Amino acid sequence: MMPNPRSEDRELDDATVDLFGLGSSTVTRGLWLFAVVYTVVTIAAGWHLRSVHNWAGLIAGLMIFALATLVVQRTRGPRFPVSAAISAAVLAVCGLAISLWSLPAESYLQLQTAPPVSAATIVFTLLAVHGRPSFAWVGAVCCTAIAGLWGVAIGFGFVTGAGNTAFCYPVLVLAMLFVLMARPLAERIRVLRERAVAQAATEAATAAAAAERGRQLSQLERRARPILGEIVGGHEFTIGEVADVRLTEAQLRDGIRAPAWESDQVRDAVWQARRRGVSVLLLDDGALSVVPDRGLLHRLWDVLVDELQAVDSGQVTARVLPPGRSLIASIVVNTGPTIRRIEYGADGEMSEHSATVPVATSDD
User: Fold this and answer.
1) How far is Cα 4 from Cα 78, in angstroms, rounded to an integer?
2) How many CB atoms neighbour CB 28 within 10 A?
3) 261 contacts 254 by C-beta, under 8 angstroms
4) DSSP character for 235?
5) Which of 73, 238, 340, 351 is the most buried (most CB within 10 A)?
6) Using alpha carbons only, how large is the chain's radius of gyration in Å?
């Protein structure tokens, strides 16, 4: 199966998008290490600085870079938000501007520009790898322009000032190459994950079907084999035994037709009710298999058992309704002129309705 040519428009999960482990502890430790190196180089290169304003500006620049990095690294989701990308790019540009303009022209050393430009490069690289390369390139160009203006301001010229940001662009080119390689790889990972989920669902359905088939065969073995053995042996059945055989057949049909009602208490109550002449019909159309609520199922069993034990004639129909309806199950008790309907909604609430059907007389 080939990747969709418009795979960039399809949403991927966090694990698929984060191919480079940008949210991992390893990357976090690397960023902390860079922060330490940034601080050491800044202090070493600016050791001769005695102005509080200069150091306040350099510290503020470091804090702004840290905030920009935090925005990029901590933002999660299938697609990196535009608002977060704009915030990170603007913060990186501001951090560079504050750091450069905090360097005094009279004692400027080229090494002093390396930490802030490197920090801005890291922010833009993270942005590009996160799938927002356009914001990274715009931010880098803005940083170059600001560095050029700073060079003009301190008397070195625009080209010399802008040249301090030159090493940012090869790094962004490499980041773009990673992004171009990662997009088809992410799509392939998504397809493989979908296939794995589909295969797991198929295997689960197959296992469930095999388990259900085994359960039914076990019931058939336990209940029908003795009767079949007697038939093969030429046993002459009494009227009572014939009734029991028919009840056994009906019970086996219940297990196949209505697995949701399959329980010892319901089975015994249905057996006894049918012995008394009550017509019992159990149906299961699957609502509880989609939303398996064991508590609701046990309440349904209890209500059905109570209704079966309370009637001596008529008909009782218990049905689990199809999925997607507002009702999950219903129990209809028809005892002649009175018909009662007990319904259970998807919210677990029970409601009861009753009606009386007029009985036809000989005068009608």
Assistant:
1) 17
2) 15
3) yes
4) P
5) 73
6) 38
The yes-or-no verdict on residue 335 having pLDDT over 60 is yes
Q: Which residues contact 41 (CB under 8 A, 6 or more apart)?
A: 111, 114, 115
What pLDDT was estimated at residue 62? Answer: 86
Closest CA to 262 of 291, 292, 297, 223: 297
CA-CA distance, 56 to 54, in Å (whole number)?
5
Contact call for residues 256 and 231 (beta carbons, < 8 A): no
Mean of all residue pLDDT scores within the chain: 79
- CA–CA separation, 308 and 311 (whole Å): 6
Task: Dump pLDDT digits (tens) for 302-315.
Answer: 999 999 998 988 99
Alpha helices (H) along the chain? 14-17, 25-45, 52-74, 82-101, 114-129, 133-154, 158-163, 168-219, 225-232, 239-257, 264-275, 287-290, 294-310
- Is residue 12 a contact partner of residue 184, using CB atoms and an 8 Å limit? no
- For residue 13, give Cα distances in angstroms to 25, 82, 186, 193, 259: 19, 18, 10, 10, 37
Structure confidence at residue 216 (pLDDT): 62
Provide the β-strand partners of residue 355. Answer: 339
Distance CA 323, CA 265 (A): 25
Q: What does the pLDDT read at residue 349?
A: 83
pLDDT band at 12 (very low <50, low <70, confident <90, very high): very low
